[in-house]
Design a protein that fits this description.
135 residues; alpha+beta; 4-stranded antiparallel β-sheet
Length: 135
């Protein structure tokens, strides 16, 4: 009878160790999922900020009375709401081919929009080439 009691104690201890390892593994997996989700959310925020900057740059090119006529760049920060710990999104407009009109009478501009997430290391950059009719 004493041998059976000792054996059942061993079985219960092994079962508790396995249960503890399972709990630790599940906790670790949950923490990793939270980190992945947070990183994805931060990347999406930076991408949306870059898209807003790109949209604002296109509006600037469509409505500006005087566009860059040399290789000089226009650099601007996007006004409006920013996240509490994030830098403001910005865009950079540069002329392509020294601002000379193409055969169709269009001047091409390169827009580089930069958006930032909550962390300083999260940055998204979008690039677009836009043609503007030469006046």
């Amino acid at each position: 009878m004493t041998v059976a009691r000792g054996f059942s104690l061993l079985v219960v201890l092994v079962f508790l160790v396995l249960l503890g390892m399972l709990g630790f593994t599940l906790t670790h997996a949950t923490i990793m999922q939270e980190k992945i989700s947070g990183n994805l959310h931060d990347k999406q925020l930076s991408f949306l900020a870059a898209e807003a900057a790109l949209r604002e740059a296109r509006i600037y090119l469509a409505t500006a009375s005087e566009l860059p006529q040399s290789t000089a760049e226009v650099v601007r920060s996007v006004a409006g709401k920013t996240l509490p710990n994030a830098r403001a999104a910005s865009y950079r407009i540069a002329c392509i081919n020294a601002c000379r009109p193409s055969g169709s009478g269009h001047v091409y501009y390169r827009i580089l929009a930069t958006g930032f997430g909550m962390r300083a290391t999260t940055v998204s950059e979008l690039e677009m080439v836009v043609s503007v009719e030469d006046e």
